[in-house]
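Quick one: LURP-one-related family protein from Streptomyces monashensis, structure tokens please.
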Amino acid sequence: MRYLVRDRMLAFHEEAWVETEHREKLFKVNRKLLRLRTTFDFVDTEGEQVARIVKKALTLHHTILIKQHGETVGRISKRTLRIFRDRYKVTLRGGRRLRIAGNLWDREFDIADDSGTLAHISRRWFTIRDAYAVDVMSEPDWLLLIILAVCVDHIIEDAEGEQLTNL
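--- reply ---
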């Protein structure tokens, strides 16, 4: 199943919508501003919080926690010292591990475990910068895979912002 993540243009604060491929809205992703650390809330169409993404402050490299119902269910961090491909490691509650590998320049990523590819994240088919697709191959994990896609996109955006400010 293909899901689309679309940033809302001209919003006062950062906001995105997760939609099905048929443009049915599923979740709103709100970025909480004016906080010590970056926080994103996944809110369903009824206004109920489904998950929260929290970027840990003061870490050597990007580390993001995924929380549901107040409990940490996953941790994603960028592996350091990769030259040609970006790699992220994901540790889920219960010890399950996932790998995210892709190309920063092309914005193409795969989320995989030991059994194979679970999802593919792509901006390739979109000419505007404010949308990307998440093709989910593992339906039981669809929500987690979309959350991970938002995390990777946020890490990339942060890295690009740091490069611009360090010039």
